[in-house]
Input
Amino acid sequence: MDKLALSDEILLKIDKPARYIGNEINIVRKNPQNVAIRFAMCFPDVYEIGMSHLGIQILYDMFNQREDVYCERVYSPWVDLHKIMKDKKIPLFTLETQSPVKEMDFLGITIQYEMCYTNILQILDLSQIPLLAKERTGEDPIVIGGGPCTYNPEPLADFFDLFYIGEGETQYDALFDLYQSTCGQGKSRQDFLRAACKIPGIYVPSLYEVSYRADGTIQSFLPKFADVPATVRKEIQMDLTNTVYPRKPLVPYIKATQDRVVLEIQRGCIRGCRFCQAGMIYRPTRERDVNMLKSCAKEMLENSGQEEISLSSLSSSDYSKLPELINYLIGFKEKGVNISLPSLRIDAFSLDVMSKVQDVRKSSLTFAPEAGSQRLRNVINKGLTEEIILEGAGLAFEGGWQKVKLYFMLGLPTETEADQREIPRLADKIARRYYEIPKDKRNGKCQITISTSFFVPKPFTPFQWAKMYPQEEYLARARTVNEEMKEQLNRKSLKYNWHEADVTVLEGVFARGDRRVGQVILKAYEKGCIFDSWSEFFDNGKWMEAFQQCGVSIDFYNLRERSLDEVFPWDFIDCGVSKAFLKREWHNALKETVTPNCKMQCNGCGAAQYQGGVCLEHQN
Amino acid sequence: MNIRIKFQKYGIMKFIGHLDMMRYFQKAIRRADIDIAYSEGYSPHQIMSFAAPLGVGITSDGEYFDIRANSSKSSQTSIQALNETMAEGISVLEYKQLPDTAKTAMSLVAAADYLIFAKSGYAPLAGTSEELEAKAQAFYEGQSEITISKHTKKRETTLYLKPLIYQMNALNLRSEETLSALKVKNPQILAHCQENGGKDNVPALFLKVCTGSADNVKPELVLEAFCGFHGLPLEMAGFQIHRLEVYAKADEIPVKGEAERKSYENYIKEQKRIYRRQGRAFPEFLTLGELGSDI
Output
């Protein structure tokens, strides 16, 4: 039995010790002495969240297929253990061999959302690795960042040695081989980084120089040396069928957020919603072959013993073989396997499927109109219309459902008070549709839940030029919705949830910030900010102090409408979608013009350069 | 058909709590392809019930749970299939069929045996098992009442432990005889016994206490009272508590239904005859596993 990094005394004192002991089913065991490269893969949040992330499972499986690499995992210690580790100077450790992270060759951190940025510093700090990349030496691991937030890595540029831009399946082998032929042969960290920046998709921030104009915007963003590429092109796995996929998923002991087998059916989305970063950066849409998915599902269920399987994609209804796949999965029901369906477009097919796999009385239907009025839905290019929603809801109500969840965003570009008031009105129309059903045929009241979040413009979307609003303005908009809701005929069947807006403001700064934002993140961490995505730990006061003390203006990043010729911090990345296309879409948005989806018509976004996926289908 | 499964838990698996162990076995049963029965309804669940929860930090050689199966392979094959998919720190020891009308393990639990000893690096309860025996007798035989007060949110309650402690004495874990008499199978305990730096006397407390849904004595409570009585410092993390076995009362009929009851009574009568012939007293308790038979 492995010796644990933490003593019994500590483990019996803290919440959920199972977070820190490893030993899960399907864990990979290797003798660290027999490998050339040790890699710590980190999700900078608590274990239950991190273990639910598919990307890490894919890379964990892929890296460990290499005999010369041992990939282990590490997650953020919860606040109780954080304090003990700081007090007793216990170095952060990997779950597999319980070895200090600082002994690894690489520390890879997946960056999935902005509010985990201080947790990244926590990981480095507890690992006893210098927080700033420039202070690291050959003794420290190479710190790599990956994941969606690296499409604007600049706020984190000071803390990472390199970023991997794009999908991990393609270039890690090259990176490992390079590491062996440089660091493995006694060459320095700098030599490795200088060579690594030439691998497609790899961005080494220390090799670029940024200069700013008097107004604070970027003047130039240039490589420091002639052999350093000026543009970093995103990496993408074009063939999603003949590629790695973990057939033996890890099975945690404590209940993870995603306590089920996850089957990723496709990447990318054809819809082109203008607020959605995922819909742009994962282009072109690529499907996995249905037979591959069937065999994966079977093996993963057998190897994990999980009692539930869930499909993962941005828009499952667009998967071409969805009925075939779902019918296959329904076959597992007799083995006690639940099928959890992601938000499908509500139509006769999906309602039929849902009635087979879930309890209609308890489950709810989900619609995400995102905006209340048709005008604003045209601005954001969300194809869902009121007619479609009412028809879908009507069908569902006839079928016995009575709960509906509606998701909207507030603070979208061009949004007016009239648009906001349309949100509860739409909910009310849905309720009215329910009460059209004769009393003796329906099952009591319906329950329509409206949730709003505040819109944050993201890089590489047509809304990357849009301005945000002050915190009070967001809350005022939520109050407008709430007031309007109380005016509705069926107000007793409606429920409205909204959040605080302070996190939104920070997300805005991190999403479109530049290198100067890094010092604020560092300052906030020093003041004790961690687990910012957990409302019980989020401390806005500390953040505001940090901005003030660093002399960094929130308004500069959030309240400015950017000019079309502004150089963005993320402009050095080629994400496959051209800036010209994004500009075109920004103008279409302001003109309230809808752009057809990729299956209906190619809109020339630029992703066709990857020569595959939906770009090669339906060509006229 | 009803099946009772016995397993042991050791090493770092002691940090996995009771509810997570249930979830662990639900998945393990599926991986091992045991033909378990599911409840009806939209979200069917496995028909499975655990005998007696084990606290976090405690290791065990005697954990039981019951399942209902539609069909089953032999005990040996099933144990092997389960053990092939176990995490390090859990092994399945028994897989026995019960009568169709068997009462659940949970409802039968009446007593459990425990060992308590100091982990290496921590102060032992006494220098030798003989010294510990003297302390145990002073505590157990020497007191007419053993009480411990518990603070709840609202009030302080006094628990009277003595009638619920069925047996308490000291053992030397270095004695091969002791270990084989206790049927210790646990790698962690065995390692502890060998590890103890050349000492030939490693003292441990043995406890048999009342367990179950009506009256339940946690071994931690007895340890707390014991340390209090002798003025010993109580550092829970310094002690390893190890559950050895879980029992039903021999005179409790473990089955429902008239015919089954008769047949069990005949079986017990027969057992008592055997014990008498061998000149041994019939035990007050039977292990939960003894109530089933191999397939």
Notes: Chain B touches chain A through 34 residues (CB under 8 Å).
